[in-house]
């Protein structure tokens, strides 16, 4: 690992800390879908206007063109300032946009990247299907070429923010005789196209973030294909590399902050006399430090490559388990207070419930272990 902070980096950290202190929204994010989208995009626009949108994105597409270490600094300070969740900007900012930077055409980059950064476009992901969740190679949504268009039919599920999205990173099977990884195509789908039906899904935390999406002869221009027809698996691996790799920089810092809050609350409730609790908090702290080291190593590696490697799967495995243990420990500490979702600890019960998704979303931990075994350790393929 080769990662250090220069005097310029430290000055950047101070500037970020000051900017966040005066700019983090004071209003609550609305609960309704339209209001939440408007709120998320207004906050994204404020970051963009302040010079903190797309810190490591190329300047020619609206970014700042700064080293990836500056993005790491931003995420660390953002988490410590308790900045709001990225919300419906997640897909566009964290892996849709980076995928276009790495694999998109010049026209696709210039058309979409500045609007993503400026809070003018919301993206969602169309990968998972009812019969192909973690086993992405089993997707069956199909598209055939007719003239200069792709005609799409099928279904996607667990599509975050599809009900408010403008575009979708969509993976479809374009070769009807292909199987598994072959014959797939990654295409930009306009979510306002005729033939698209979106149905929100209410999850156990009471939110309707996820959706089902149905496609009935949806026509998309061939110019929207990212990469080549039939090369979608390669492009999708780029997308998942960003999702599982650099996309976790902010999340690991948020876990560290969550653990600090947990220690503070345990002390205020007079629970630190319990030696068992102290030992558990010590173990969690050691794991947070270990995850920070893993994240720094990933940033160091990603700074020398266009697309993060399979090492991101190790971070995802570790993060999912650690997030669940930290939020479960928080429920143990606050006890019955966690039952009042409208009270002081209402946010904590929501985070606890959502933590169950961390070992499933973006590929289950079991699939990630297969990736680590095969692509990093060189073990035989799991048949």
From TrEMBL:
GO molecular function, one term: oxidoreductase activity, acting on the CH-CH group of donors
Xref: InterPro entries: Acyl-CoA_Oxase/DH_mid-dom, Acyl-CoA_Oxase/DH_mid-dom_sf, AcylCo_DH-like_C, AcylCo_DH/oxidase_C, AcylCoA_DH/ox_N, AcylCoA_DH/ox_N_sf, AcylCoA_DH/oxidase_NM_dom_sf, Mycobact_Acyl-CoA_DH
Domain of life: Bacteria
Record key words, sorted: FAD, Flavoprotein, Oxidoreductase
Gene3D superfamilies the record matches: Acyl-CoA dehydrogenase/oxidase, N-terminal domain, Butyryl-CoA Dehydrogenase, subunit A, domain 2, Butyryl-CoA Dehydrogenase, subunit A, domain 3
Family to which this protein belongs: Belongs to the acyl-CoA dehydrogenase family.
Taxonomic lineage of the native organism: Bacteria, Bacillati, Actinomycetota, Actinomycetes, Mycobacteriales
Keyword tRNA-binding appears in the UniProt entry: no
Name of this protein: Acyl-CoA dehydrogenase family protein
Domain Acyl-CoA dehydrogenase/oxidase N-terminal: 6-120
Gene Ontology annotations for the cellular component aspect, listed alphabetically: plasma membrane
The keyword Flavoprotein appears for this protein: yes
